[in-house]
Hints:
The protein is α+β, with helices and mostly antiparallel strands and about 120 residues long. About 30% of the residues lie in helices and about 40% in strands.
Amino acid sequence: xxxxxxxIYQPDGPKPDAAVLxxxxxxxxxxxxxxxxxGSWVFAGGLHPAASATVVRHKDSGSLITxxxxxxxxxxxxxxxxxxxPDLDAALSWATKLAAxxxxxxxxxxxxxxx
Length: 115
């Protein structure tokens, strides 16, 4: 099995209405249960808005710490799921389900090496 990172990208701006978020949360809970039942779930988590980020850069004179995201954009990493999958096709199948549950784009990337 290979571990894959399924990154969830969400647009900046106001949160959707509570009813919309409740439906997304219900779908995510069901998908996480499905991942667990399949033995593919490793870890998942949502993130605070990008404005809460702190960036640390190494400089020859030491570390430079700044507030805010490293890059400015109209969307940011909002959450992620780490899965075990036998191959990219299986990871893409899970990512398709995650995109349907969240209604957001999902980036799929394998970790270096295998478990």
